[in-house]
Design a protein that fits this description.
heterodimer; A: MetI-like fold; globular; B: about 375 residues; alpha+beta; 6-stranded mixed β-sheet
């Protein structure tokens, strides 16, 4: 308590420089921190999307390519042709199917991971995330060894006379489902682990002492409290599946070409109809955002919304 | 007949024995506390009773029925945890009704019982709220209501007051006790707070390193601790090292030398061998401090030893003194030094005093007993 003048503490023999970088950084820190990611997003995402949106309203002239004349024909063509509408249904339906299938496959895994006290849990997580480390093409070729015409599964089915001819999984919808579930599972597991781990043991103990059996505890306590993970996981998987392109292209066979993402690729690369390709891309994006938004609005309005509200974080 | 009986209970975690209780009985309607520092096995014991943990050995019975291997959902117990453990996604009604619904009750009966239970914990009309809309104290009452609503045989409380602030904790203590009396609920209460255990319990079980150190009424464990650990853990206690000089069988009094030529008469439960090393314990508030030259207040069985005030701390109702005894040890005394007219006086460090010990407040604890 010796200094009478508190400002004296700042007096220093070396004068502060007129150009103080730190002061400037602190003053504009919002822009300093947010600027780079914003710039990247703007240049690499927003600008291309705006261009894409613009393309979708241009006219395609066969032989000449894209002509900069405004038209709604691309959208009219998309929404009046049953081929494209069927494709839309297949794409969205597959998104929903993969979300549900991945959830069913991943929930037990995430549950046991989150609730176990196994010492080498970290190692298990590394293994669970393995699909992340491998390039998608490598993953597909890996599955070819298992599911291909001469693959393990077919040899097994033939050896036990379950089938008379090998089934070509890799030219079928089943192949798409199997591989997409595998590809998306890390996202789902990661989304589920957090909420499952946050369920306090004492809640489960309480339920048990209150007279609940394991099945009841799962239904009353664990499942409802893990809903935030279920919802975020399925939304992420849905969005990623709807946008998936390589898997349906490579393993889908005929049905693969019915996926909107593959159609975009076909229009732009094979048919060279950039305008129509752009229109499909815009529709796909809009549908994906629309479905996810609608899903979360409906869920937040329902009883599950209580769990997801912010106040729940204790 | 004992209502709850634990015998030969052993629970190990790896190599460490977390709880080893040879025999513990709880009477019907009794409020029993398991008291001890963290890691003493009190929570482990409670969890074994609740069925959350399975004991490695031994048995637990309630109403004479062995429940050691009975799954928790069929034990009919009520439990309250330190962190309330309310189901965050349930309303207060659903929380309290949970045990009833698991017992197959429905409709009117449930809502009536829930309302009664909330009435009992003085939270009527809270049914539609969610736990996060309630304060900590309110949440703990809801947890209590949830545990008692279905009429459990035994109420298990795992440090239920520890998360509350000091003032609330005190008022909750009395409410808890009132509720327990009113329902005549056999209650097992786990705590590390000796004050809580002393005010609430009919019986206190002091635990240390997985074992029971002493079982007794609050006055017994406070005033006649049987081991050094109990003496040290409950209230602050002066421990004086000494050597037994003689033992008088008719009065159970032992003459102990604590260094120099200071001899003290102290009571002992068991016979003490001559020349054996012993510990003497005395509570600070049982130590009387007199100004030098003042006449000792009581003659019979009292020993007077000269000393010097080292420090005097004022704590409102009385003083806490640190006194250096002439024969060596430093002791703590709580009370007031009074002048000849009986008025409290302030004393400065360095003041010469006489310290008086009554033989009933000094207890001998043999070294061997630890």
């Amino acid at each position: 308590m010796s200094s009478q003048n508190p400002t004296q503490a700042y007096a220093h023999p070396i004068a502060r420089p007129r150009f103080d970088l730190y002061a400037i950084l602190m003053r504009y820190r919002l822009w300093f921190f947010l600027g780079p990611p914003l710039l990247v997003t703007l240049v690499l995402l927003v600008v291309p999307l705006v261009i894409l949106l613009q393309y979708s309203f241009f006219t395609h002239v066969p032989g000449k390519g894209m002509v900069f004349v405004f038209t709604l024909d691309n959208y009219v063509k998309f929404f009046t042709d049953t081929y494209y509408l069927t494709g839309t249904l297949i794409t969205l339906g597959t998104g929903a199917l993969i979300s549900v299938a991945t959830l069913i496959v991943c929930y037990p895994v995430a549950f046991y991971y989150a609730r176990s006290h196994f010492r080498y849990k970290g190692l298990i997580l590394v293994l669970l995330l393995a699909p992340f480390y491998v390039n998608i093409i490598v993953k597909i070729y890996g599955w070819m060894i298992i599911l291909g015409r001469t693959g393990m599964v077919n040899q097994f089915l033939l050896a036990f006379n379950i089938m008379s001819r090998p089934y070509d999984f890799l030219e079928s919808y089943i192949g798409i489902i199997i591989i997409l579930v595998h590809v998306q599972s890390p996202i789902m597991v990661l989304s589920l682990i957090g909420p499952l781990q946050n369920i306090s043991d004492s809640l489960i103990h309480t339920a048990r002492v209150c007279g609940a059996r394991d099945r009841t505890i799962f239904k009353d306590v664990i499942l409802p409290l893990s809903m935030p993970g279920v919802l975020s996981g399925s939304m992420l998987v849905f969005a990623a599946t709807v946008a998936a392109f390589i898997v349906p292209l490579v393993v889908g066979g005929k049905i693969g070409f019915q996926f909107l993402s593959v159609m975009v690729y076909q229009q732009m690369n094979t048919i060279q109809n950039w305008a129509f390709g752009a229109a499909i891309a815009v529709v796909l994006l809009a549908l994906s955002i629309g479905v996810v938004t609608l899903y979360s609005i409906i869920l937040k309005a329902s009883k599950v919304g209580v769990i997801m509200s912010e106040k729940f974080i204790r | 007949m004992s209502f709850v009986l634990i015998s030969g209970l052993r629970k190990r975690f790896g190599d460490t024995v977390a709880a080893a209780i040879d025999r513990l009985e709880v009477r019907e309607g009794e409020f029993l506390s398991l008291l001890g520092p963290s890691g003493c096995g009190k929570t482990t014991t409670l969890r074994c009773i609740a069925g959350i943990l399975e004991p490695d050995e031994g048995s637990i019975s309630i109403r004479g029925q062995d429940i050691t291997r009975v799954p928790p959902y069929r034990r009919n117990l009520g439990m309250v945890f330190q962190n309330y453990a309310l189901f965050p996604h349930f309303t207060i009604f659903d929380n309290v009704a949970y045990g009833l619904k698991n017992r197959g009750l429905k409709g009117e009966v449930v809502s009536k019982k829930v309302a009664e239970a909330l009435e009992l914990v003085e939270l009527p009309g809270m049914e539609e709220r969610y736990p996060h809309q309630l304060s900590g104290g309110q949440q703990q009452r809801v947890a209590l209501a949830r545990a008692i609503v279905y009429g459990p045989d035994v109420l298990l409380l795992d440090e239920p007051l520890s998360n509350l602030d000091a003032k609330l904790r005190k008022s909750m203590r009395f409410e808890l006790k009132k509720l327990q009396r009113r329902l005549n609920l056999t209650t097992i209460f786990v705590t590390h707070d000796q004050q809580e255990a002393l005010t609430l319990s009919d019986t206190i079980v002091v635990m240390n390193a997985g074992r029971v150190e002493q079982v007794g009424s609050p006055t017994e464990v406070y005033e006649s601790p049987r081991t050094l650990f109990v003496a040290d853990f409950i209230g602050s206690t002066n421990i004086l090292k000494g050597v037994a000089r003689s033992f008088d069988r008719s009065s159970n009094l032992c003459k102990v030398s604590i260094g120099g030529n200071a001899d003290l008469w102290a009571c002992s439960d068991a016979e003490v061998a001559q020349q054996s090393e012993v510990d003497l314990i005395v509570k600070p508030e049982k130590v009387r401090v007199l100004l030098r030259g003042q006449k000792a207040s009581s003659g019979e069985g009292a020993s007077v030893i000269p000393g010097q005030i080292v420090n005097a701390g004022y704590s409102g109702a009385n003083y806490s003194y640190h006194i250096q005894l002439a024969c060596g040890p430093l002791i703590e005394a709580v009370g007031n030094i009074v002048d000849s007219t009986g008025k409290p006086v302030e004393v400065a460090p360095g003041t010469e005093v006489d310290v008086e010990f009554d033989s009933d407040s000094l207890r001998v604890i043999g070294r061997g007993r630890q």
